[in-house]
Structure formats: C-alpha cells, structure tokens
Prior knowledge:
Elements lengths: L1 H6 L14 H8 L4 H4 L13 H16 L10 H19 L5 H6 L1
Helix pairs in contact: 4-5
Amino acid sequence: MLLEMFTGRRPIDSEFQDGHTLHNIVRMSFLERVMEVIDQLLLLEADEKGKTRECINGVLEIGMICSMESPKDRMEIHDAANELCSIKNFFLREAGDGEGMLEADWA
C-alpha cells in the first residue's frame, strides 16, 4: 500500500504486465532514480535541502520490505509503524516547527 500511495500507481495498471511488479519497479529505481517513480504531486512542495527525498527513500524502503514476495522476509507491522513515525518526526523536525497540514495529516 505504501508503494501505491507514493508512486500513484496500482499493481493492476497496464504497465504491470509480463511479470513486472510495482515492487520491482521501485526496487530498480531505488536511490538513483527514485524521483522518476514518485507521484509528482508529492514533490510540489519539496524542500531544497533534500530532506523530502530522504524521507521518501525511507518510506519506499519500508514499502519494499513490507511487499517482499515471501512473508517471512517482510517487516512486522509494528516495526513498520515505528519506522514510519520516526520518518514523520524527522521530516517535521527538519521542516521547522512541525506545525501545519502535515502534522494534522500524520497525527
């Protein structure tokens, strides 16, 4: 679900035929070309210091781990939630006072 939310794509989209998966596309793009697979609406208010990219990388990494093919390789949900909270707190701390729409949306 995280990968769907951050890429704006769904596993049933036409591009995911012939064995291609959302997980694989994000994994192949991770780090070097990650901004190519991100929903561009998320980047409209991206910061100049790169903290947005750093946070997106963290969320996508969690999304990839949670969508591993084998359930035994996936992150436990409570660990994923804790990691996401840490990313949120980092983003809000780096963004300034932490007030505003993001804080209300994540709370």
